[in-house]
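Sorry to interrupt, but I need a hand with the structure work. Could you write out one complete protein record for me, on any chain you like? Could you add the entry underneath, on a fresh line?
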Amino acid sequence: MNEELKKVVSNLIGEEIEVLIKVSNRPDLCDYQYDGTFDLSKRLHKNPMEVGEEVASSLNEIPSCLEKFSKIECAKPGFINFTLSDAYINKMLNNMNTQEKFGVQMPKQETIVIDYGGANVAKPLHVGHLRPAIIGESIKRILKYMNQTVISDVHLGDYGLQIGQVIYGLKEESIKPNEITLEKLSELYPKISGLCKENKDIKEICEEITKDLQDGNQEYHEYFQKILEISKKDIKKMYDYLGVSFDLWLGESDTYKYIPEVTKELESENLLEESEGAKIVYVAKEEDKKEFPPLIYQKSNGGYLYGTTDLATIYQRKKDFNPDKILYIADKRQDMHFTQVFRVCKKLEKLKYIDFEFLGNGTINGSDGKPFKTRAGNTPKLEAMFKEVKEIFLNDETHEREYTEPDLDKIINSIIKFADLQNSRDKEYIFDTNKFAKVIGKTGPYILYTYLRTKKIITNNHQYVDNLSKTIYNVHDRNVRMKLLELENILHFAFKNRASSVIANYLYEICVLVNAFYENNHINNLEDNKKKTDWVTLLNLTTKIIADLLDLLGIEIPSKM
């Protein structure tokens, strides 16, 4: 419809002009609205109503507009209102109903590496790891849905200081590699990490152990291998519970063989400089409004930091996949680090053509507005958080059904994921278990309940077809149909902006309208066969869309609720 309006307006003022028709915020008056008449009136030195009437009159003479709209009119003080015809609404829905992925036009295909795990080995996953995993998994699914070639990598932190600290603790307690347990790792990491903050000598020893490991110390490597084996098993268990998966389970340690090549590239372009014995790369730009310190490439003791291994990882990904884009999902407080890394890449001939995106996320907070804690006051491990959510959900007296364990796990996942994904990625949010576990309100269980309730109506009235008739029967019926027509724009916006929250909120809006629809339209007792077939067909299309959107959020559907 923008093309027809653009042609009319351009002819009116004698030059080509861009136009924008917006979804109306008064659906009781019209479906879409154009307010550019006010700017046009200034250019033409006319009253906005006069210009609006002229534009509306011209549009009403165009055959394609007559097919699409039952009404195009100018309303005071000069808006042009568009109301779609019932026949055209149903024509569009029928196209959606019979085409793969609802006929959504796909963007240009690119190869995209997405890095969204980032867990450190040697310590259990805690609530801080939740958002990157949930958000990253959803963005990965959106990219794949939009026909992108996607490679996902967990990129474990497995060669940093925490490894040196844990090896130090194990040796202090005379624990051999084959005696290491997950419980012992969970106990040692916070203990030795705390000691390093208090005792500079112990910290230096741990740093030396880390460097010796990186340099190939065989004894430390045996410890490292066992720590990695135990940690990965536990990390995979937590990610499996969340339905989070990766194509690659690589870590920092896998990138070390590429560091000499990266060093050679940096040296060939005269980018490495010495500073107090360390090697650095300057990344500051004249236009920077805040200070950008140089990236420390190699410490004075010869050890490497995250910036080095991230550069080596990008170098590896370039060689293995030649990606168009690399996306990183991590705590937004890492913005400075990733900006440094990306700026170094843009200085290197072999890496500068990759597009980089850092998608920073905010923290999960408790009801006090501070980072989420357990009842005991500690930052919870993910496993403890899952158990707490499950306990609160089952203790809610509104739930009478006995759930199978798989169904219960899906519901718990829906509580956690929908609570997270309905918020903008970069914003903090308060995780209120009592609120998010409800089957009413803006929650995962509400979405699942709506889907299952709708599927039951379809099953009880198994008479849906591919094509709706040209009729729309009432306002609740029309509201659902109009909301479904927004799908393509929603998917494109979510894809372009890496915004799962847009899908989550759209999904909730659909469910609110569907609930209003079947509370006001009693399909089961309906004797009008044509109307029943239309409505069951509409609900069948709606549930297909809901199912796809839930999958994009990483939420599985239970068998019962």
